[in-house]
Write a structure and sequence with these properties.
Layout (H helix, E strand, L loop, with lengths): L3 E12 L10 E17 L3 E4 L5 E4 L9 H16 L7 E7 L9 H16 L6 H16 L5 H6 L5 E3 L6 E2 L6 E7 L6 H14 L1 H7 L1 H15 L2 H18 L4 H12 L4 E5 L6 E5 L6 H9 L4 E7 L4
Parallel strand pairs: 3-5
Antiparallel strand pairs: 1-2, 2-5, 2-6, 3-4, 6-7, 8-10, 8-11, 9-10
The protein binds (3R)-3-hydroxy-3-methyl-5-(phosphonooxy)pentanoic acid.
Length: 314
């Protein structure tokens, strides 16, 4: 049996991070500028990842660690294959990718989805996308403490989705092409810690609890603006979403500064994306041209700036 390769993209959230954990809708989309690539080859049931200092573990290793969720997901694939009367062939799984961990770009979901796809494909099986999503969500809960399922749903979707926890995602159309510019603040944050920080704010701050109810309207505005191609309206809704995230305590001075600089450089709208407290910000470029925004962010010292046009050019 030869080796099998599968990929999965990073993701961006346009609306609903944190609020999605409380049952509110989110809008998110894959970010194919960054990819995870997983290779499965006949071997000894070991996992090797260049993301964690060339760490290597055995598939049946039950000890906690950065690769524990992936081991769990692959053991579940083995169990499913057994149920389908397909014998598991011992494999070596290698993970490579350019998605910075802890940056709100969905790196753990991307690794899980790519690995689950590769392991099934290596055994001649193509699982339904809903099964891949469920397996990745269960495993991601190990990494994040809890996972709404938003990241696994987004990195396994063909384009933008509307997502409500516990429901199948709804695919959204793109009414008019648009360009997003994304900057990494260079500060990695564990989603688990940032979710706990926002929850602590919700527990003691009535204004934060009240703002949660605004996410329903923000997600509809963003979903409709995407589908009808109303880019000015999309920009305004992204700005309003950032302000709501500020009230939730998900942002900080440095991310707010990056958002302001993007708007001054002509962005139609800008917001943090992901759990916040570090990680990434995104901006909607005017007339598809993100160069001024990218230059402004590079001047501020952002270690990575990417530009992505949607829909992806064929
Ligand atoms: O892991 P991140 O930074 O992409 O955050 C995901 C979004 C959260 O709402 C904060 C967590 C979740 O599981 O939905």
């Amino acid at each position: 049996m030869s080796e099998t390769v599968a990929t999965a993209p990073a993701k961006l959230i346009l609306a609903g991070e944190h609020a999605v954990l409380h049952g509110h809708p989110a809008i998110a989309l894959p970010f194919p500028a960054l990819l995870t690539r997983v290779t499965v080859a006949p071997g000894q049931d070991t996992l090797v990842s260049d993301r964690y200092l060339d760490r290597m573990v055995a598939l049946d290793d039950m000890s906690p660690g950065p690769l524990a969720p992936l081991c769990e997901a692959l053991r579940e694939v083995r169990m499913w294959l057994g149920r389908m009367d397909r014998a598991w062939q011992p494999v070596d799984v290698a993970i490579h990718g350019d998605i910075p961990p802890g940056s709100g770009l969905g790196s753990s979901a991307s690794v899980l989805v790519a690995a689950i796809r590769a392991a099934f494909a290596h055994h001649g099986s193509q699982p339904p996308v809903a099964l891949v999503r469920q397996m990745a969500t269960r495993a991601e809960s190990l990494a994040h403490g809890t996972s709404s399922g938003l990241d696994p749903a987004t990195v396994s979707a063909p384009g933008p989705i509307q997502f409500i926890r516990g429901h199948a995602p709804i695919d959204l159309r793109i009414g008019r092409p648009f360009t997003l510019v994304v900057a990494d603040s260079g500060r990695a944050v564990a989603t688990r810690d940032q979710v706990a920080r926002v929850q602590a704010r919700l527990d003691c701050d009535a204004a934060a609890r009240l703002v949660l109810d605004r996410f329903e309207g923000l997600a509809s505005r963003i979903g409709e603006a995407l589908e009808y191609g109303e880019l000015e309206a999309l920009g305004l809704a992204l700005d309003d979403t950032h302000e709501a995230l500020v009230t939730l305590g998900a942002s900080d001075d440095s991310l707010d500064g990056l958002v302001r600089v993007a708007r001054a450089a002509g962005a139609l709208g800008a917001k943090l994306s992901g759990a916040g407290g570090g990680g990434c910000v995104l901006a909607l470029a005017p007339d598809g041209d993100g160069e001024a925004i990218a230059a402004a962010w590079r001047d501020l010292g952002c270690p990575h700036v990417w530009t992505q046009t949607y829909p992806e050019p064929a």
